[in-house]
């Protein structure tokens, strides 16, 4: 009987809607052979020769896994349906071996590829006369060009090819290569059909995309009339390789699917029945193969999601038939009526027996536990309480099962012993990550000492020392479950230990924890997390805390280091959680929409997955530790980056970016969960409060100070929660002597009576920009950088070239002057682009002619300028020549990259923020001109921004600076986390460190290159903070890396730290002197022991 027999009641129209190519050639046992297992009957397909005749389910086979790409596959023959031959790939000029697979049916397939052809070499071990019965994708007829010799078509779906000398070679032209090849074997003397343990043999070639997988599964879940837990597991088994090939997104989908099933949001019983031995077999197969993906999936995140899948799966295996026979033996041996056999009438046991016989599932464990509780106490109400608490099973749910259980049980306490044993039988089949079951099943694969320690831990599982010992034993266990051929029970044991570790931490009395206790727990939680997560981000945090543990604690200097470590860890935890949520929540919502699930259940699905991770306990540990560290470091709960008194109506916002371009009709205080660092302050906003750390020298902080807006970050959640309670009320904010922001409710009249405070609360003074001079030059070298031809950024570099402090470098640079963009646009080659751009810009005063919003028009304008402009030949030749003479290029420029970067800089004139800023400032569009500065990129070890007048106090001569690892874009762009910040008092030379670096990510230039920088005539205007509104584009993209501070010199080498900060401060003072004592906003880098100033501009005070 074919697998489709379980779904044969589907209507033809339903099948036609569900993509014909999604059909699965997997078989179910013949219903007439009720005493034969699925495993037995599946090895003998019907005489028609192939199993795809009526099947609904898709089969997507083995993927290009991480180790498969190396010619290895971590699926041992003894544990799964196919295993790799341990054969390293060979390469030749003609082809590359992609992978080699050996199936238990005695056939080996080697897949290789060259520029034009995909080749499958099949080798048969048996001497029996055998035909290869094969097709492509989901049993589609292959094109004749791929048929080997001695191939005959047998129907409209498949062909047969005779093995000769044990060999067959199949070739596909690259343009016609399918996703996969599927086949079964037909021995002809005597006739016997062989398949892959109940499935077709399948070799993945070009794996399908995640959307194809999702469509197939969602079709089955939403349309098949015969469906349930076992068919779902069959489909999961068939699609697992394809999901893994799709990477993190594919395995995240698999997790959502399996989790929704475990939580019974998807049906377990819908017109399908299976014997217990068949249930055990498919559960075992899926659990083992999922375990193989945990060990050898396509990537770290794919392996992580496979682990989460396995955590919710039943282990399978055991003696599945013992479930069916076990309940019968109990009933017969204890005189319980069964069928026509006379005995004690117990409708509950009779109905449960029928369910166990036809559809045993993991919920039978809960039923057995609840029944045992009833046998002990005799209270049927207690049974239903345990059913609900242990498995969320209600009386109505029992009655609605495919084999309903509607009777209450009789109180027969003499059955306690037999059902305790029966519970163990159920657990060996259905239990997943159960510590006791998993250890019992895995002990044979472990060394004696580890086994003894694990049993000792379980026997003392409630003792105080268990968490530390548990992590130690998990570290020893890792070797076993990562080894090739590891059985699933070892992984299930590790998952159970991981889960119990969280339980141990959560039951700790928080009020009794001292600072040192929390530090030890933080380190232990991180160590536990990285055993299985393969997350380098978290590993970097663990190494940092390990170093902190080994130093003298609770000094102010240590407090700053620990504060930085805590914030770095918070960012790693947030990144970990956000990535999970980003991948699983949209999938849950799609299931809700397609399958009609309860929206209330899926609304917080992603958050529940995140909160279910053992590492989530790190959140409250860090929250408890924060106040202790701030007190030790002498740091308050607030970081004020722009000082001002403010009063207005308090409004809550998820993000400051969400209200860009809005105008408020009265003074408003924004309490935003997220501030990115590049935003503008909307008109009539007088204060922005946030939980996001904000760098003092980020663009948003500079704009806040220029607009007299209070900008502050709060690190005490309880204080922000108190302010949130004032939402919609008029509030007055002030800064106390300790630097904390205080809030008090104010009268509405008072709140609107301070027009001198806040962003544009009074009438905005119109800003004017100087119109540029005309020039016929396409490119200017530094000796021609003049006012009216280029912006202050370029001109100041030319000044510094002759006045740079000793030992400080200035990078080589060129400028495409003001008017170059307009000349390019006027070139005949760009006539159509110019016309299209003018049409777009003409609609920016409001809705365009087609109803487009200004933001949509701006986006189209940027896209046009960035991609459609053609460079005049004169410009290209002039720039190439100037690059050689100025030292920017020793040879020919990479022209495509150079031109693309230049055009993107010009396009940034129409950034949303830039356009909104000009609108607010009253700066006319035709008055804004964009020069483009081409500058040598210095690969930085550290980048810094320095203001020679303290931006917080306005005090001249008092230097304030910030330093980050890598390039400065992470600093001015306010990447999450604090920078190292320091001050140098007027007339002093000793830097005072205010905070240590905690940014999660840094940007790095891998090799010397060029960067195209914006240099407009609207960036240094009085009353308009134009810096950062326009883009700078590296010709070679910068590489983002998570930062490892465990050995970072900025933190741990005080001598180097002071030397670097002193040299930066000294250079800043000399740069200010070069501009006749005018306070400067300076950007630079440190590389190979040398400082380079990349920019200096007048500081906005």
Describe the structure.
- The protein has 1101 residues and is of the alpha+beta class.
- It has a seven-stranded mixed β-sheet with strand order 14-18-17-16-15-19-20. A seven-stranded mixed β-sheet has the order 21-35-34-24-25-26-27. Strands 5, 6, 7, 9, 10 and 11 form a six-stranded antiparallel β-sheet that branches.
- The chain is globular.
- Mean pLDDT is 83; it is low at 1-93 and 750-757.
- This is Pyruvate phosphate dikinase AMP/ATP-binding domain-containing protein.
Core attributes:
1101 residues; alpha+beta; 7-stranded mixed beta sheet; ATP-binding; metal-binding; Pyruvate phosphate dikinase AMP/ATP-binding domain-containing protein; GWD1_pHisD; kinase activity
């Amino acid at each position: 009987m074919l697998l489709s027999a379980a779904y044969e009641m589907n209507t033809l129209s339903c099948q036609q809607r569900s993509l014909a190519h999604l059909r699965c050639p997997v078989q179910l046992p013949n219903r007439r052979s009720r005493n034969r297992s699925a495993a037995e009957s599946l090895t003998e397909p019907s005489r028609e020769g192939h199993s795809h005749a009526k099947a609904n389910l898709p089969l997507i086979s083995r993927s290009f896994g991480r180790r498969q790409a190396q010619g290895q596959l971590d699926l041992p023959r003894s544990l799964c349906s196919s295993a790799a031959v341990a054969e390293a790939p060979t390469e030749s000029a003609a082809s590359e071996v992609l992978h080699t697979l050996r199936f238990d049916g005695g056939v080996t397939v080697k897949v290789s590829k060259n520029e034009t052809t995909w080749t499958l070499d099949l080798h048969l071990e048996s001497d029996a006369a055998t035909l290869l019965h094969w097709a492509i994708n989901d049993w589609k007829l292959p094109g004749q060009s791929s048929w080997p010799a001695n191939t005959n078509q047998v129907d409209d779906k498949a062909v047969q090819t005779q093995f000769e000398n044990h060999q067959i070679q199949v070739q596909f032209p690259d343009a016609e290569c399918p996703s996969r090849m599927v086949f079964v074997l037909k021995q002809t003397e005597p006739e016997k059909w062989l398949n892959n343990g109940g499935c077709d043999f399948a070799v993945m070639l070009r794996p399908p995309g995640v959307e194809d997988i999702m469509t197939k599964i969602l079709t089955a879940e939403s349309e098949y009339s015969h469906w349930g837990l076992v068919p779902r597991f069959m489909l999961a088994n068939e699609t697992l390789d394809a999901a893994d090939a799709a990477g993190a997104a594919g395995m995240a989908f698999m997790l959502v699917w399996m989790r929704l099933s475990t939580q019974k949001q998807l049906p377990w019983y819908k017109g399908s029945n299976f014997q217990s031995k068949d249930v055990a077999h498919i559960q075992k197969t899926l659990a083992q193969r999922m375990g193989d993906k945990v060990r050898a999936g396509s990537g770290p995140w794919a392996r992580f999601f496979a682990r989460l899948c396995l955590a919710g799966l039943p282990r399978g295996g055991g003696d599945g038939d013992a479930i069916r026979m076990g309940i019968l033996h109990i009933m017969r041996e204890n005189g319980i009526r069964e069928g026509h056999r006379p005995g004690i009438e117990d409708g509950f046991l009779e109905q449960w027996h029928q369910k166990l016989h036809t559809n045993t599932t993991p919920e039978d464990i809960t039923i057995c536990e609840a029944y045992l509780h009833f046998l002990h106490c005799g209270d049927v109400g207690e049974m239903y309480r345990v059913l609900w608490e242990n498995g969320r099973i209600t009386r109505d749910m029992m009655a609605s099962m495919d084999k309903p259980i509607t009777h209450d049980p009789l109180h027969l306490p003499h059955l306690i012993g037999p059902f305790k044993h029966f519970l163990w039988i159920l657990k060996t089949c259905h239990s997943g990550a159960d510590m006791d079951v998993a250890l019992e099943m895995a002990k044979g694969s472990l060394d004696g000492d580890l086994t003894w320690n694990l049993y000792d831990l379980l026997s003392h599982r409630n003792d105080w020392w268990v968490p530390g010992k548990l992590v130690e034993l998990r570290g020893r266990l890792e070797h076993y479950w990562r080894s090739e051929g590891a059985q699933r029970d070892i992984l299930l044991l590790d998952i159970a230990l991981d889960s119990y570790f969280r339980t141990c931490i959560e039951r700790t009395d928080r009020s009794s924890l001292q600072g040192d206790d929390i530090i030890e727990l933080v380190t232990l939680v991180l160590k536990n997390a990285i055993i299985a997560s393969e997350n380098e981000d978290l590993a970097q945090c663990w190494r940092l805390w390990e170093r902190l543990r080994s130093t003298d604690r609770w000094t102010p200097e240590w407090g700053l280091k620990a504060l930085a470590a805590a914030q770095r860890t918070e960012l790693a935890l947030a990144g970990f959680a956000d990535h999970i949520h980003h991948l699983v929540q949209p999938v849950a919502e799609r299931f809700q929409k397609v399958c009609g699930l309860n929206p209330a259940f899926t609304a917080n699905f992603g958050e529940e997955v995140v909160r279910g991770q053992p590492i989530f306990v790190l959140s409250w540990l860090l929250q408890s530790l924060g106040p202790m560290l701030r007190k030790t470091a002498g740091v308050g709960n607030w970081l004020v980056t722009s000082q001002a008194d403010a009063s207005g109506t308090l409004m809550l916002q998820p993000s400051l970016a969400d209200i860009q371009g809005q105008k408020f009709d009265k003074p408003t205080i924004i309490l935003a969960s997220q501030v990115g660092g590049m935003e503008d302050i909307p008109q009539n906003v007088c204060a922005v409060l946030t939980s996001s750390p904000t760098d003092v020298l980020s663009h948003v902080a500079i704009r806040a100070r220029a607009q007299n807006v209070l900008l502050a970050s709060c690190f005490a959640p309880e204080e922000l929660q108190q302010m949130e309670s004032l939402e919609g009320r008029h509030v007055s904010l002030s800064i106390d002597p300790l630097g904390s922001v205080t809030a008090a409710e104010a009268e509405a009249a008072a709140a609107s009576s301070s027009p001198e405070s806040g962003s544009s609360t009074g009438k905005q003074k119109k800003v004017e920009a100087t119109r540029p001079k005309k020039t016929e030059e396409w490119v200017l070298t530094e000796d021609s950088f003049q006012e009216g031809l280029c912006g202050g950024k370029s001109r100041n570099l030319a000044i510094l070239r002759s006045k740079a402090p000793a030992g400080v470098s200035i990078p080589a640079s060129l400028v495409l002057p003001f008017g170059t963009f307009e000349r390019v646009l006027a070139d005949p080659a760009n006539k159509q682009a110019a016309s299209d751009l003018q049409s777009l810009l003409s609609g920016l005063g409001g809705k365009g002619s087609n109803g487009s919003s200004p933001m949509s028009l701006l986006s189209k304008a940027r896209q046009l300028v960035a991609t459609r402009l053609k460079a005049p030949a004169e410009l290209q030749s002039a720039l190439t020549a100037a690059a050689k003479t100025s030292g920017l290029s020793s040879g020919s420029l990479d022209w495509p990259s150079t031109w693309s970067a230049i055009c993107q800089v010009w396009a940034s004139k129409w950034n949303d923020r830039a356009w909104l800023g000009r609108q607010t400032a009253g700066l006319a569009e035709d008055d804004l001109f964009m020069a483009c500065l081409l500058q040598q990129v210095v690969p930085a070890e550290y980048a810094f921004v320095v203001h020679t007048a303290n931006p917080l106090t306005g005090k001249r001569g008092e230097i304030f600076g910030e330093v980050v690892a890598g390039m400065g874009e992470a600093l001015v762009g306010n990447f999450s986390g604090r920078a190292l910040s320091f001050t140098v008092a007027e007339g002093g030379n000793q830097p005072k460190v205010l905070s240590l670096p905690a940014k999660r990510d840094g940007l790095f230039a891998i090799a010397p290159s060029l960067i195209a920088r914006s240099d407009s005539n609207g960036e240094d205007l009085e009353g308009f903070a134009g810096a950062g509104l326009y883009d700078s584009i590296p010709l070679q993209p910068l590489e983002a890396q998570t930062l490892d501070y465990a050995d970072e010199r900025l933190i741990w080498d005080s001598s180097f730290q002071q030397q670097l900060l002193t040299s930066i401060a000294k250079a800043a003072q000399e740069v200010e002197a070069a501009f006749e004592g005018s306070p400067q906003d300076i950007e630079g880098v440190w590389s190979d022991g040398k400082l380079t100033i990349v920019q200096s501009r007048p500081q906005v005070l």
